[in-house]
Amino acid sequence: SIGFIGAGKIAYALGRGFVKAELIQPSGITASAPKGVPSAIRDFEKFGAKVTNDNSECVKNSKIVFITTKGSLIPSVLREVSPIVDPQQLFISVAAGVTIDAIEACLPPESKVIRVMTNTPCLVGEAATAFSTGT
Question: Dihedral (C-alpha) 93, 42, 58, 98: value to the nearest 10 degrees?
Fold first, then answer.
């Protein structure tokens, strides 16, 4: 199961790509976005993913959690969900300008974190992606 905290264009492109590649069924995806951003969730709903305005619900439903919010929101979002993080979950950040150390500082000790940098061609399924693992 895969979750996306933040349901913007990159999150949607990744989710749609995972479904297209038959890595997961749409029902195995949960996307969360703030209540004031209905357009962000609409695309996920269209292809059959679960949607919510509750980041904690997204984390509870996911083995792999993509952090796809704006970088400035990451500390508050991760502190919000930190009490329910399972040590077996994997957190993957695609946010620019947020270090692995900063992400790990907001999660429980021993949390698994990967930072991924992709480029805009991922929106059409053609991207170059670099990644780095945490401690």
Answer: 20
pLDDT at res. 89: 97
pTM to 2 decimals? Answer: 0.90
pLDDT computed for residue 32 by the predictor: 95
Beta-carbon contacts of residue 128 (< 8 Å; ≥ 6 apart): 118, 119, 121
The share of the chain scoring above pLDDT 90, in percent, equals 61
How is 33-61 classified by DSSP, letter by letter? --TT-HHHHHHHHHTT-EEES-HHHHHHT
**Strand, helix or coil at 95?**
coil
**Structure-derived torsion over alpha carbons of residues 98, 79, 86, 56, reported in degrees to the nearest 10:** -110
Is 51:44 a contact under the CB 8 Å cutoff? yes
Question: How far apart are the C-alpha atoms of 48 and 14, rounded to whole Å?
Answer: 14
State how far the Cα of 83 lies from the Cα of 11, in Å rounded to an integer: 24
